[in-house]
Amino acid sequence: MSDSTTPHLEIDDLHVYYGKAHALQGVSIDVDNGEIFGVIGPNGAGKTTMLNAIAGFLEYDGSIHYDGVDLATVSPRDIVTDGLVYCTEDRDLFPFFTVHENLQMGAQFRDDREAVEEDMRMVYDLFPRLDERRDQEAETMSGGEQQMLAIGRALMSDPDLLMLDEPTLGLAPIIIEDINDAIEKLNQEEGLTILLAEQNSTFALRHAERLALLETGSIELAGSAAEFQDNDYIREAYIGIH
Amino acid sequence: MISAVYALIAIGFTMIFGVGGVLNLAHGALIMIGAYSFLVVTSGSTLGILSLPTGIGLIVAIAVAAAASYVLYIGLVEHIEENPVITFLATLVVALILSELFVMGFSSSPRTLINLVPGSIHVEQFGVRVTNIEVVGFVVSWIAIGLLWYYVTRTDEGRSILATSMSERGAQLTGVDLPKIKARTWLIAGAFAGLAGVFIGTLQSTSPIMWLDPLALAFIIVVIGGIGSIKGSIVAAYLIGYLETLTVELLGAGFRGTFSLLVLVIVLLVMPQGLFGREWVHE
């Protein structure tokens, strides 16, 4: 655990290029221990690119520090085992594994079997739908259930910081409620730090204490949830209520 | 009976494809390495003094083929696997080089392996004679397949192999050590090939061209069973195994491969994803 004065995750002047396209143009954000940090912005703004860079899946310029460690020096695997866990937009579940096997995979690198058992109970508790479908193959489940499973699998890796990419994309409102409650509970009861990337600004504003607005590869605005709610541009362009 | 041995070969081939996306054309050469390792340490004539018991020979064959497979991955394939075409050609070149080396070292004429378990059993009811080596090959192959099945479905490490074949990104997200898992897959595939090599070498032939038939067979079985599917490999191995036996019985040994190819063409036309080809669908 880091002490409270240094940020949990510190991204400084991050640049990512896809060939000649400059996808991220000097993004800097700090995520503090125990908070929910929201990154909002339209499709194609670079939210997923940023998360992919943090997870070690992309080459980048600039620096990313997690608990003081420069992530450029560690492998994607070490990033996961050190507690920075990524739940992607595509979910990347194991389609022919059952719910239970997918969850087991999330904990495959952990040795403390008792803690794993406990986390398994916690996840089934958090998402009773998964509990009902333990033996169902991931592929045959609905989008909402798959999203729950993806979050559940990430939780099985015992994260300190969870990166969620578009957890509400394409889901029915009633399912979004479930995801909603789960995120609230994880943050407040388990003290989990969450970096949330969302197009659904309303959803992000509901949870995040601080946010950043990412547009075409750079941060256009950063501040507290209250500041975002009062900002005219945000209200008009992203929330749509006046 | 030989079908179980075919299954061993096809499983190794399909696992490597499933996990790494590599079509390993040197897979047949690993079988050859297994057979010749057995020959060298058991025959007594090849290395003069070495004439170990056949049981130890079998273990040596497995170990040498597994090691060769591991070295092939770490030393070569790992560095080029991003490019499937180069990998494809490189493994073919390795197979050809090994074949040449074996011609130089052992001459091109076929050799006879010492039978692991000489003799045969006569089954009265069916009026057929089954050699002991076939029975042992069957049993040992199934034990190996059973162990593998237990490993990939009941342990975290083994499950990671299956998981990686379903979604490489998913495996990365769950902290799977991809290089380690891939290397281990090659090790297992090599061990299976070495084991199969001793039985193929005894039952069919041990020669520097013996790598070709099993490789073609592995291809056919894997395509029929569904690329990347272990279950499919087993079922298809039996299908092809019985078909071969039947063809040889009814039409003669010259037609051994013909019907397998016919089935291959039919499968490709009717169900290109194979019998259990679901993993492939999601690549």
Automatic annotation (TrEMBL), chain A:
- The highest taxon in the source lineage is Archaea
Q: Which PANTHER family match?
A: HIGH-AFFINITY BRANCHED-CHAIN AMINO ACID TRANSPORT ATP-BINDING PROTEIN LIVF
State if rRNA processing is listed as a keyword: no
**Is Transport one of the keywords UniProt gives this record?**
yes
Sorted alphabetically, the keyword list is: Amino-acid transport, ATP-binding, Nucleotide-binding, Transport
Q: Which Gene3D superfamilies match?
A: P-loop containing nucleotide triphosphate hydrolases (3.40.50.300)
- Write one Gene Ontology MF term: ATP binding
Q: Which family does it belong to?
A: Belongs to the ABC transporter superfamily.
**Gene Ontology BP terms:** L-amino acid transport
Would you tell me the protein name for this molecule?
A: Amino acid/amide ABC transporter ATP-binding protein 2, HAAT family
Q: Which species is the source of this protein?
A: Natronorubrum texcoconense
